[in-house]
Design brief:
Radius of gyration of chain A: 25 Å
Oligomer: homodimer
Strand content of chain A: 15-25%
Number of helices of chain A: 17
CATH superfamily of the largest domain in chain A: Crotonobetainyl-coa:carnitine coa-transferase, domain 1
Shape of chain A: elongated
Number of domains of chain A: 2
Strand order of the largest sheet of chain A: 5-2-1-6-7-8
Chain lengths: 397, 397
């Protein structure tokens, strides 16, 4: 029997490439939607050329495009007509072109709405589909820079720092998924579709909202403060013998427990450290004292002792630790094995949204370029084998 | 007429505190759901004590809790019965307690399902509701550290670095919202509710998926590489006369345009720089050459010239620039003014999910503690004024 996910029966036409858009449609597919990824004939999604490669296949692509069907289609001429036929049978279209691209093809939301007013149109772009900067190119680094995220990440005296992943892309991919699903609910109730417009920059700005309040209320420009937080201490990273860990002693009681573990319970009550606000003021001194202790032990020893005493703590994991962690990779299934027809058996990311009744899961590997052309053009549009062969011949698909 | 959002008619009981959970229910409320925030009598959400403050009111709280109704309720004894009555009339419950807390109260998902099998139960926690680490405390910094995010953020030779916002909280808040909305679709179709379990750690791991592939495929542990990316150069930050900017010259053609702007078009074709992979190898030298040019001009001059030449570029904005930007704050309405009964007129974050037909918006300021007790207990549960007064008297609400 076919797997039934939460979004079973929802059909998505997926024009997205690279990261932000494919991350959205990956989540929709993991949750059971039928996602038909439409790629440029011969070439496909740019990310098919991005490493690392397994037997010549891009793991970047294979990770983000599992559970999707793959077809090829040139969106001009006869291909445009074919696309519009598919739109009539779809619930959702998602694209992450530069704003205006779909309009130039005659396939903007207003065009698609005419053939299917129930359609939900989700789009991700650097700056969004309206506003003075809408035509600017928008990559992840642009989103991280423009939004203020980089300006608040890093160390005092150091340079603005980007997050070590394409975070603006990820935030936008998550956010457009939310908008699409809310629009789906509205469409189910009212029969009316709509456009959901999400920008990398807006999404990164939204992630900063507490930081923004510091400026909005106090007029103070938030600075880079390393790994500590503005309001509590010691809630920071500390070096150990063999790496680093974080300790989250967010209140006086937890601080007292840290001092007990350090073998100096009286330290907690010294007048310059006894209240949280004083520790925030004297954070440099507190860090030195705590680090004098942590530097004498291993990360594992420290984390075990702190957790046993009820103090929030964790190792600062490198990726090899994460990928092999019994909780993360084991129980939470954040890395899973699939079989790919060319790459063979490989590990990709699992899904991080755990649902008790309709468990999101990986059912099929990412498609080869045009792998589902015959199936989709036959079953969805009713084209004959001869017609499909002619489309291939003319390089329309 | 009352505003109709995409989620109009959806009722949410919101037990969340501080950031990850409230960020989820904020988005649901912005999109039109009726969110009833349930707080501990007398004390309320911890974040009511978090600065910055406006006339004694927390802007942290006011930002994340706009559009919500606020009631107080002690979840033990008679309060538990009252909560279960409300669950019968709700579509969604969201909580971000440590796993097991709701079960101890007799209000875990299995308990709530008995009184309302259609209910969707969303929960956010540090490590999720199952797995060996489920009982560990999980703050944002724990999520950023455990997931590998910190290990890949920062500078070569420098320390692992956290993102300048509570990114693990934000990612989890976005992710649980996706799961809840997918579950809502499934519930609408089948009548069956379910539990959506999202962990800070899992959410941060999911944000790293391309980075994880570097280890999974190549066995290489991804390092901190500052602001450049692994696969393309110059795609990095550069210092200018008066600040820093980012340039995203992701291919040979864009690199040639940068060299033209630098007044040295031949540089683009020098054998050590003519192909992208060579520039990645020689990124230190390329950075020096480009920075020798950028250091002679202002950020604005550089960004204008680069954009005019079609090269992706942006200033690394500080928060004051973001909050006053004509695109971000203006056209995209990422900062909006509201009137709060105590704080007065103030600016909070707008919503970053732009929907054409049911525009998410801020209709009401965050509630004062217990502000909607009378309204909710009367209209939703049909309690009399005397009954409500007695509940207050007994400190149940």
């Amino acid at each position: 029997m076919e797997y039934q996910g939460a979004l079973h029966g929802v059909r998505v036409l997926d024009l997205t490439r690279v990261l932000a858009g494919p991350f959205c449609t990956m989540m929709l597919a993991d949750m059971g939607a039928e996602v038909i990824k439409i790629e440029v004939p011969k070439k496909g999604d740019d990310s098919r050329q991005f490493g690392p490669f397994v037997n010549g296949e891009s793991s970047y692509y294979m990770n983000l495009n599992r559970n999707k069907k793959g077809i090829t289609l040139n969106l001009k001429g006869r291909g445009k007509e074919i696309f519009l036929e598919m739109v009539k049978k779809a619930d959702i279209v998602v694209e992450n072109y530069r704003p205006g691209t779909m309009e130039k093809l005659g396939l903007g939301y207003e065009d698609l709405k005419k053939v299917n007013p129930r359609l939900i149109y989700g789009c991700v772009s650097g700056f969004g589909h309206y506003g003075p900067y809408k035509d600017r190119p928008g990559y992840d680094i642009i989103g991280q820079a423009m939004s203020g995220l980089m300006s608040t990440t890093g160390w005092p005296g150091g340079e603005p720092t980007r997050t070590g992943t394409a975070m603006a892309d990820v935030l936008a991919g998550l956010s457009v998924t939310i908008g699409i699903l809310a629009a789906l609910r509205y469409r189910d109730v009212t029969g009316i579709g709509q456009k959901v417009d999400v920008a990398l920059v807006d999404s990164a700005v939204a992630s900063l909202e507490i930081i923004n309040q510091i400026y909005l209320v106090e007029g103070r420009i938030p600075q880079r403060i390393g790994n500590r937080y503005e309001s509590t201490y010691p809630y920071d990273s500390f070096r150990a013998k063999d790496g680093s860990l974080v300790i989250g002693a967010a209140n006086d009681k937890l601080w007292q427990k840290v001092c007990e573990l350090m073998g100096d319970p009286d330290l907690a009550f010294r007048p310059e450290f006894d209240k949280n606000y004083k520790r925030v003021q004297n954070h440099e001194e507190v860090k030195k004292l705590v680090e004098a202790w942590t530097m004498t032990k291993t990360v594992d020893e420290l984390v075990d002792a702190l957790l046993a005493a009820g103090v929030p703590a964790a190792p600062i994991n490198t990726i090899d630790k994460v990928v092999n962690d019994p909780h993360i990779a084991g129980a939470r299934e954040m890395f899973i094995e699939i079989d790919h027809p060319k790459a063979g058996r490989m590990k990709i990311a699992g899904t991080h949204i755990k649902m008790s009744d309709t468990k999101p899961c990986v059912r099929t590997p990412a498609p080869l370029l045009g792998q589902h052309n015959d199936e989709v053009y036959r079953d969805l549009l009713g084209l004959s084998a001869d017609e499909i062969a002619a489309l291939k011949e003319q390089e329309i698909i």
